[in-house]
From TrEMBL:
Pfam families: NMT1 (PF09084). It comes from the Bacteria. InterPro entries: SsuA/THI5 (IPR015168). Residues 87-270 form the SsuA/THI5-like domain. This is ABC transporter substrate-binding protein. Residues 1-21 form the signal peptide. The lineage of its organism: Bacteria, Bacillati, Actinomycetota, Actinomycetes, Kitasatosporales. The keyword Hydrolase does not apply. Keywords: Signal.
Amino acid sequence: MRRTPVALTALALLAPLSACAGTAAAGDGATVTVTVGYQSRTINTVTAGTLLRSLGSFEKQLNALHDGHTYKVVWQDYATGAPITAQMTAGKTDIGSMGDFPLLINAARGKQLGRPTRLVSVTGYNLRGGLNTIVTAPGSPLSSLAGLKGRKVSTSIGSAADGTLVRALRRAGLDPDEDIHKLNQQPAVGASALVAGSADALSQFVAWPGLLAFQGKAKALYDGAQLDLPTFHGVTAREDFAKKRPAVLEAFLKAQAEATAYLNAHPVDAAEKVAKATGLPAEVVYLYNGAHGIATFDPALKPQLVSALKQDVSVLKDAKLTGDVDVDAFVDDRYARRALGAAYATSLAAVPPPAASEAWDRGAARTRAFATPKELLAYVAAHRSGVRAAYVPDATTGTLWFADRAVWVADGDALLPFVAPATAQAYLGAHPGARAVSYGQALEQAS
């Protein structure tokens, strides 16, 4: 199994609290309101949002405080991290979850407006950058980033997906400011623009690329993992809230650890829960959050993630979205260390193993894992009507993708999947005996 579950340790009840959180009134027996901003459809934040909420873990942890207060949790659902930051810097939201680039803007705005925030934990991450993907229309002639010159590309400026677009274009020798027409759009608007033909490509974060590919409305043009730079989502808290209500924040982080453990132990059920809450297809949720999904969930603030965050600052500065950001001052793992105890060190040391090919049979509570993509294809070929979804890892980046949406290459007896055509072409160029095959041909060869 791909995940490294976070062990939950028994912790003593914390001392009574004396100050109020968010909009709560102070005083013994008062009702304390804790406001949590989350992004239900940004499914790599589910352990601090959608899944956490559906499990009721935070409320249970608050009830266990027994500090004389009654707690009320207000959940606020947003499409992106920007409005969460706006609410936090206005003192109206206590805890929020968002991607790495929005987290930096959160840090910058908080300091600028005198409402400093702190990054306290991580939700979903991918050490190579596979959470972001550039897609184009299914019938598009585009097969590489070079073809984007002079074209319209939709993204959300200031998002991790925009960061991926900027870096990818620069590596391809294109100027992201001069060589493309960038459309600054919300994910749903950009998806509609791609389908309508008013955008030639879309660079977005999870779950939009996978959703559009699953629906047959897009095909991958660029796999963010080609950058080989970590991307992640995390939890941020207002500094004044954390200082006044440390036990409440630690209760949230304990609840996040519970949700993480549940996702790791019950990946299919967790995907179904998130699908029910968001309206996303469970097959898409599982692509990202499954047992061998694109994302890994460990709450610890790993050094390589913090290092990547520091590298992200220059991209936002170039876009004039922030000035310098003191990442070391923004990162604060004290609350997570106290909340998780010894399990924090386990989370910090966890290394995601390579992804594996998987088949999700209809009506099954578990998926089947296969040693090679060819073995998966042989199974699918023999059980076509019984397979709900099939997943394969990119042969070069390890990014999981839908088997029927992958670009396939036959190299001798091996059948190799790729997320994007450019990586497949690179492989073909380096292996003269290899040849491109369709999904149907790959199934036939495997069987």
